[in-house]
Amino acid sequence: QVHLVESGGGLVQPGGSLRLTCSASGRTFDPSFMAWFRQTPGNERDLVGAISWSTDSTYFAEDAKGRFTISKDNAKNTVYLHIVDLKPEDTAVYYCNGRIGANILYPWGQGTQVTVSS
Q1: Above pLDDT 70, what percent of the chain?
Q2: 6-63: per-residue pLDDT in tens?
Q3: Which of 36, 42, 31, 49 is nearest to 8 (CA)?
Q4: Is 90 helix (H, G, I), strand (E, B) or coil?
């Protein structure tokens, strides 16, 4: 079974930046894409963007284009989400997961809280 651990969140002032990390472990880890999601209380988990595990191809939700980038280190089974010019509306718990089409591949991790506030 694959185990996902997200980290790197915290309290950041508007305009700041963060790099979130997703570390995966487990012998069956072999995703097509690794995706980042975010969730606010009372709302569904929304896709932020994803990266192909075999290439560096990425795609992003419309509201994540421009300020979010995704990178990876295949050797470490690790994916990163870089966010710049953070805004209060970016406040959420951020999760990662493997993805094929709209299907999630692995059990969810605990997520990492990002709070953007002055």
Answers
A1: 100
A2: 999 999 999 999 999 999 998 888 899 999 999 999 999 999 999 999 998 999 999 8
A3: 36
A4: helix
| Calpha distance 17→3 (Å, rounded) | 26
Query: pLDDT tens, 51-74?
Result: 999 998 999 999 888 999 999 999
Q: What is the dihedral of CA 42, 96, 81, 39, to 10 degrees?
A: 0
Give the closest residue to 89 by CA, choosing from 115, 111, 59, 65: 115
Q: CA 109, CA 68: separation in Å to the nearest integer?
A: 21
Tokens of 41: 């209380």
Q: What is the CA radius of gyration of the chain?
A: 13
The burial class, CB within 10 Å (0-12 / 13-18 / 19+), for 55 is exposed
